């Protein structure tokens, strides 16, 4: 799956080795000790500029280790060489402990010269030795964070290819392709049953991006559960939700999942990460709705559900337009202001996302009669008009 023509695009790595020779670098370090530079002959070399004092660097190292190990398993002859931005040798050693690849021995002057030669102005930076490699400015680090080992051979062409695959996946939304993973074509239920993806065929699907640590997500989970249960009761099995978790660990994921009546993508699965990127999910909670035909209906399902609950089904634009029109009509039928026997001030017709009715103490949304003087709300249905006669 890694680009088949990488040998053509990767220039001879003698350039890097030549620079090392010119700078007097005779050996590199591995976790076991000194390694002659000549061991890199014939390998695809990438330089990794990073420092232990830098948090984004420390966070990136495990992602790069994963990539390195995956590519080695694919028998790609890759070598990464760490060039340190650390200010002292202790930081360098501490950082290098976490890396399975090679390092240029700690030497502040030498590091500075190499940093200048490669014009590295930020860390972490990853510099592949190929002629059309993604440059530091084009954000190869971001590309690796997004695509992991699939980013290999780190060329612009490969990056364009990957973006094209994402667009196709988003537009075709083939559920088996979107939600399938290396472990197989199944999801898991709140009580840990494996549910085959084929059971989703013909249904409207909500991809719910959320996490247990996020209070807005927990609040939305309550609304979504309500809508889900109402829909199941009213329309049967036409709708399903799949949790795409951004929980911090498996334990938290299990707690999160156990509070939900729907399905989830297994936590171990990279698909969770891929789906966030494919649907460009920037914040949570988010709900992406996919129709029975496999086409994306909306990426803004959260607003639909929090506004209209189960009523929003099937979540199409025309359905939302109808709901909005009905709401407008309801408002037009109500008086702009009223006097109620239960309250001493005049009440004005108002629109609120959510309120509690001060008469029946129950939740309300949209139209309310509210008081400008004190914090008082009344369901239009709880109104008892003052009899003026
Ligand atoms: Zn009421
Ligand atoms: Zn009042």
UniProtKB/TrEMBL annotation:
It comes from the Eukaryota. It catalyses: [protein]-dithiol + NADP(+) = [protein]-disulfide + NADPH + H(+); [protein]-dithiol + NAD(+) = [protein]-disulfide + NADH + H(+). Signal peptide: none annotated. The keyword Cytoplasm does not apply. Its EC number is 1.8.1.8. Keywords: NAD, Oxidoreductase, Repeat. Residues 16-180, 184-325 form the Thioredoxin domain. Pfam families: C1_2, Thioredoxin_8. GO terms for molecular function: thioredoxin-disulfide reductase (NADPH) activity. Belongs to the nucleoredoxin family. This is protein-disulfide reductase. It comes from Glycine soja (Wild soybean).
């Amino acid at each position: 799956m890694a680009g088949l023509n990488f040998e053509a695009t990767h220039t001879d790595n003698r350039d890097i080795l030549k620079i090392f020779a010119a700078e007097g670098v005779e050996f590199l370090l591995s976790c076991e000790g000194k390694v002659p530079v000549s061991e890199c002959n014939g390998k695809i070399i990438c330089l990794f500029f990073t420092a232990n004092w830098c948090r984004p660097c420390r966070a990136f190292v495990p992602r790069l280790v994963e990539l390195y190990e995956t590519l080695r398993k694919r028998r790609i002859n890759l070598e990464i060489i760490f060039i340190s931005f650390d200010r002292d040798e202790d930081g360098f050693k501490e950082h290098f402990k976490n890396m399975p690849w090679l390092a240029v021995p700690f030497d502040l002057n030498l590091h500075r010269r190499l940093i200048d030669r490669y014009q590295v102005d930020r860390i972490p930076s990853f510099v592949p030795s190929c002629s059309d490699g993604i440059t530091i400015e084009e954000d190869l680090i971001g590309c690796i964070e997004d695509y992991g080992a699939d980013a290999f051979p780190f060329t612009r062409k490969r990056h364009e290819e990957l973006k094209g695959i994402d667009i196709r996946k988003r537009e075709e939304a083939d559920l088996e392709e979107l939600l399938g993973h290396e472990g197989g074509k199944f999801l898991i239920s709140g009580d840990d049953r494996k549910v085959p993806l084929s059971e989703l065929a013909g249904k409207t699907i909500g991809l719910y991006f959320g996490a247990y640590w996020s209070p807005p997500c927990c609040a939305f989970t309550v609304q979504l559960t309500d809508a889900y249960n109402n829909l199941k009761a009213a329309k049967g099995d036409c709708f399903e939700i799949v949790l795409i978790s951004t929980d911090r660990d498996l334990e938290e994921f299990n707690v999160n999942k156990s509070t939900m009546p729907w399905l989830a993508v297994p936590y171990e699965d990279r698909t969770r990460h891929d789906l966030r990127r494919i649907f460009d999910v920037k914040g949570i909670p988010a709900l992406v709705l996919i129709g029975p035909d496999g086409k994306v209906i909306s990426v803004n399902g959260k607003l639909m559900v929090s506004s209209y609950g189960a009523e929003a089904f099937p979540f199409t634009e025309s359905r939302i337009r109808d709901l909005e029109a009905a709401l407008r009509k309801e408002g037009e039928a109500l008086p702009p202001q009223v006097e109620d026997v239960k309250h001493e001030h005049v009440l004005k017709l108002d629109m609120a996302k959510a309120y509690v009715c001060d008469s029946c103490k129950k939740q309300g949304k949209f139209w309310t009669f509210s008081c400008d003087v004190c914090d008082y709300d009344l369901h239009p249905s709880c109104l008892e008009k003052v009899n003026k006669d």
